[in-house]
Amino acid sequence: MAQSQRRALRKPTGGRYKKGAKKKNQYELGRQPAKTHIGERRAKSVRTMGNNSKVRVLAVDTANLFDPKSKKYEKAKITNVVENPANRHFIRRNIMTKGAIIETEKGKARITSRPGQDGAVNAVLVN
């Protein structure tokens, strides 16, 4: 069954919207989240609207790390997920999303990209 991102049939009060019965449209299509975790790099290409594509990273073990002091990027190995504001259960499962704090060999870093949609893990060092 296709996932839809259209408006719900019911109002926040519990009442129904009028003329709510219509078919699902392709532009309302939603997909399961990628749930990027730590491991050897695995990626999947997904076709999107307008024949464009997104790269979904399913697993990755390195991050493009930005050091604000030296203003330089370097690759760093990811060891584990320390904090994830998206879902507290993602920490135990080492799932990375935007805003998650990861532990790298260079220190703790905050993820600034969306690994499930961008195809890369970009992060900024945090003290």
Shape: elongated
How large is the share of residues in beta strands? 35-45%
Integer average pLDDT: 93
How far apart are the first and last residues' alpha carbons, in Å?
A: 45 Å
Give the SSE string: EEEEEEEEEEHE
Helical residue percent? under 10%
Q: How many domains comprise the coordinates?
A: 1
Largest sheet: 5 strands, mixed, barrel
CATH architecture: Roll
CATH classification, class level: Alpha Beta
Radius of gyration: 18 Å
CATH topology: Structural Genomics Hypothetical 15.5 Kd Protein In mrcA-pckA Intergenic Region, Chain A
Q: Give the oligomer, counting copies of the same chain as homo and different chains as hetero.
A: single chain
Largest sheet, spatial ordering of strands:
6-7-9-10-11
Low-confidence stretches: none
Counting DSSP H or I runs of 4 or more residues, the number of helices is 1
Structural class: mainly beta
**Beta strands, count:** 11
Notable traits:
mainly beta, Structural Genomics Hypothetical 15.5 Kd Protein In mrcA-pckA Intergenic Region, Chain A, 43% strand, 127 residues, 1 helix, four-stranded mixed β-sheet, elongated
Question: Can you walk through the features of this model?
Answer:
The chain has one domain: Structural Genomics Hypothetical 15.5 Kd Protein In mrcA-pckA Intergenic Region, Chain A, CATH 3.10.290. The protein has one helix and eleven strands. The strands form three sheets. Strands 6-7-9-10-11 form a five-stranded mixed β-barrel.
Question: Quick summary of this structure?
Answer:
With 127 residues, this protein is mainly β. Helix content is 3%, strand content 43%.
